[in-house]
Structure formats: structure tokens, C-alpha cells
Amino acid sequence: MEKEKVVFFLDYANINRAAREKRLRLDYHDLLQYVGEERFLVDAHCYVPINPRNEHRLDAVIEDLWRSGYIVTTRLGAIAGGTYKCNFDVEIAMDILKAIYQVKPDIIVLASGDADFVPLIQEVRRLGGRVEVAAFEETAGSDILLKCSGFNPGSWQLAPIQYAGDRRKGDNLWTYFTLISEVLSGAED
User: Fold this and answer.
1) At what angle do helices 89-98 and 118-126 cross, to 10 degrees?
2) pTM listed for this prediction
3) pLDDT tens by residue, the chain, 189 residues
4) For the residues of 32-97, what is the DSSP string, one character each?
5) Where are the domains of the chain?
6) Which residues share a beta bridge with 83?
7) In terms of Cα–Cα distance, which of 67, 63, 74 is closest to 12?
8) How far is CA 13 from CA 19, 34, 75, in A?
């Protein structure tokens, strides 16, 4: 049997912020290894915002991401009061659509709980793609959870995580993630 082709997209700011709120430190190399396990991982993209007040703070992290196999996209944020803003939603959406049209993967894995991606998920569904969303349930937008037809909040287990199809995993890393898996039939909502 041929391995499923996967393209992985990591919204670093979203997942890293959620992990910090849970006082967790994620191993992004292990995350990538898990996503590609028993699959053909075509590409892995990671989007990292850069703090304009401390531009080199994440240099080592970015280097580790590259070394782990991610294609890293960075952008300098804009100062907004006491913090900074740097939104990658459009770039992530464009790159996912490019992957759907050019690479034609069996699965897109989106690591983000940002509900702004719901229209993108719906478009990928209409195109007949399959999407898996990895996020911390507590910080994921309710809409992203509701739009995934394979997600049943009443019976979802955190450990071990139940993965798409027959894949089941109880790794420490994924014990903290909720994977919402969706086989996309192309049917309209």
C-alpha cells in the first residue's frame, strides 16, 4: 500500500503560545517526526513572527526548526503598544492552497487553533482534500472544532489521542494535543 502524502503547516506563534499557557515546552522535531510517521512527508512549513524589539531572540529556535526539516518563514512584526503584531494567516492560507493545487497531498496537517482558518478548511474540503488540525482544545477557536465533522467534544479523549483513521498515538507530546481529524468528502456544509 502506498504511503499517504502529507504537507504540514505549523503556526508557531499560535501553538507556542498555547503550550506556554499550559507550561509545556514542545519538541518541534518530535512533532514533525510524528506527523510524518508511516506517511510520506512532502514538506513541513513553519511560520515564525519576529519581535521587532528583540530581532535575534529566536535565532537558535529558527535554526533548530530548519535543522529539523521545516521550511521556515519569518517576518518582522510591527510594534503595537506594549507588544507587537505579526499575522501569517494569509501566507499560511496561500501556501496551503498552493500545496493542494501543485503537490496534491492526501492530507494537510494544520497545527493551529486559530478559527480564522475555518474558511480555508472549508475550501480544502470543497476541493476534496483531507485536513487534520492539531491544537490544544482549550485554546482552539470553537468554530474550528465545530467545523471538523470528525470531532465529537463529548467523547474526545486527551490521552491517548485518537488519530485519523486507525492511527492511535499516546506519545507524551501528543498527549497534550488534541488532534481533530477530518476526512473531507467534498460535500458542502
Assistant:
1) 10
2) 0.80
3) 899 999 999 999 999 898 888 788 788 898 888 888 889 999 999 999 999 999 999 999 999 999 999 999 999 999 988 888 899 999 999 999 999 999 999 888 888 889 999 999 899 888 888 888 888 777 788 788 666 533 322 222 222 233 333 333 433 333 344 443 332 223 333
4) HHHHHTTSEEEEEEEEEEE-TTSTTTTHHHHHHHHHHT-EEEEEE-EEETTEEE---HHHHHHHHH
5) 5-182
6) 80
7) 74
8) 10, 20, 12
Task: Give the Cα separation of 167 and 176 in Å (integer).
Answer: 17
User: What CATH number belongs to 5-182?
Assistant: 3.40.50.1010
Distance CA 167, CA 151 (A): 15
Q: Is 183 exposed, middle or buried (0-12, 13-18, 19+ CB in 10 A)?
A: middle
Residues 39 and 5 sit within 8 Å (Cβ to Cβ): yes
